[in-house]
Specification:
Strand order of the largest sheet: 4-5-13-10-11-12
CATH class of one domain: Alpha Beta
Structural class: alpha/beta
CATH architecture of one domain: 3-Layer(aba) Sandwich
Strand content: 15-25%
Oligomer: single chain
Bound molecules: pyridoxal-5'-phosphate
Distance between the termini: 66 Å
Order of helices and strands: EEEHHEHEHEHEHEHEHEHEHHEHHEH
Largest sheet: 6 strands, mixed
Helix content: 25-40%
Shape: globular
Number of helices: 14
């Protein structure tokens, strides 16, 4: 047996699609990968997985790449699930964890999706990929494309963080700034597919980035001893992370590797300046409207329209969670507060989650004794613009110790 994938499936209408070939959208919407979970159960056990190297490819039987094909990898995962007693103490929480995705190869969780998507694209004969990006996906795609020996085209809004502009250049991609938002960049990628012969690697417009992101959920379960927390806070833009994790938990339940108990409540966190999922959730809708004048320093959350909106909203509702917006003014203070408390490099997107967590504690939606996992999806050091800093200058010949002592 070379793979446990049985087929692919249109997420909007359940249409069965063949495995082992390139896919984009189906009926304008994303595609799921489906596995023979009985076969997975026969091939591997949690004990066998525990003995494998600490990379997300340890979950090989639950990933789409055929077993005899080498993945395109930079040694991504596992990321630490860090206990946060000091920050938890400040918030009155006894069980607060941060899953620190900033430690992945390109400093953000986007590496997970890209190792899976680029591996599959390479196996299926793709030589050139293109994608729109809010920032981190472009850097990760460029790095993995370089690793695969593939050409990569990246399109990003003009005011994308400078480090995200630097990354594709560093990894030899052709990168462009566009006077618009990520959806405008997405249109360029779509329109150029025929003329440029590239494969569209946009969020959720191919089936395999979700599978890579799914490993965040697999890792959390394994790191907690094959059980799940009560609550997960996740910064949501395009939604692959949240959708992928929900998929992971269902697969683990089907496998019998975790208990059939209520799944964690997903709290989808968006910035008030771009909160289409929050608006749709509050209005009881399954699809989100384009969010007007999207603006936030949490650039990964500046996604005014998501092709997988219904998958995000279905996952949140099925879990008993909610979608909430965090305040723009609190992003920078929360980056510093959370990073200072625990020494973790907290990105602006995750700073939004901490504001949302405070709201949830105040409203009683989350109890102080619950076990909570917050995803830190990227490294703060990638966002120089979010937290402009000028350190005090010292004269080395006339040291002012009063100033140093502060
Ligand atoms: C740091 C960071 N966090 C969160 C997100 C949102 O990701 P998702 O597509 O999983 O909603 C992004 C997307 O660009 C990001 O870069």
């Amino acid at each position: 047996m070379n793979s446990t994938v049985t087929h692919l499936e249109g997420a909007i209408d359940g249409t069965r699609l063949p495995a082992g070939q390139l896919h984009g959208l189906h009926a304008g919407r994303p595609i799921w990968v489906r596995y023979d979970l009985d076969a997975v159960r026969r091939l591997v056990t949690p004990t066998m997985i525990a003995a494998r190297p600490p990379s997300l490819w340890r979950y090989r039987e639950l990933l789409p790449l055929p077993f005899n094909v080498e993945p395109v990898t930079l040694g991504e995962g596992m990321t630490p699930l860090l206990n946060c007693p000091r920050l938890g103490g400040q918030l009155g929480l006894s069980k607060l964890w941060v899953k620190d995705e900033s430690q992945l190869p390109t400093g953000a969780f986007k590496s997970r999706g890209m190792t899976a998507a680029i591996s599959m694209a390479k196996w299926l004969g793709v030589k050139r990929v293109a994608l729109p990006t809010a920032g981190n996906a472009g850097g990760a795609a460029a790095a993995y494309a370089a690793r695969a020996g593939m050409e990569c085209y990246v399109f990003m809004p003009t005011d994308t963080p400078v480090v995200n502009q630097f990354e594709p250049h560093l990894y030899g991609a052709k990168a462009f700034r566009v006077n618009g938002l990520i959806n405008d960049c997405g249109k360029i990628v779509k329109d150029g597919a025929e003329r440029m012969g590239w494969f569209d690697l946009s969020t959720l417009k191919e089936p395999y980035r979700i599978e890579g992101k799914k490993t965040m959920g697999l890792e959390v379960a394994e790191q907690l001893g094959w059980r799940l927390p009560d609550v997960i806070l996740y910064p949501t833009g395009g939604g692959t992370g949240l959708i992928g994790m929900a998929k992971a938990f269902h697969e683990l339940m089907e496998l019998g590797w975790i208990e059939r108990r209520p799944l964690p409540r997903f709290y989808s966190c968006q910035a008030e300046g771009c909160a289409p999922i929050v608006t749709a959730f509050n209005n009881g809708e399954r699809h989100a409207e384009l969010f007007p004048n999207a603006r936030t320093i949490a650039s990964g959350l500046r996604v005014p329209v998501a092709v997988g909106d219904f998958m995000i909203l279905d996952s949140i509702r099925a879990s008993g969670g909610k979608a909430l917006a965090g305040s723009e003014a609190k992003i920078a203070p929360w980056m510093v507060r959370a990073s200072t408390a625990e020494g973790i490099s907290i990105c602006p997107e995750t700073a939004v989650c901490f504001d949302v967590l405070e709201q949830l504690l105040a409203s009683g939606d989350v109890q102080h004794n619950e076990e909570i996992v917050v995803f830190n999806t990227g490294a703060a050091t990638k966002y120089l613009e979010a937290l402009p800093v000028e350190l005090p200058l010292l004269d080395k010949d006339h040291l002012d110790w009063g100033r140093i002592a502060g």
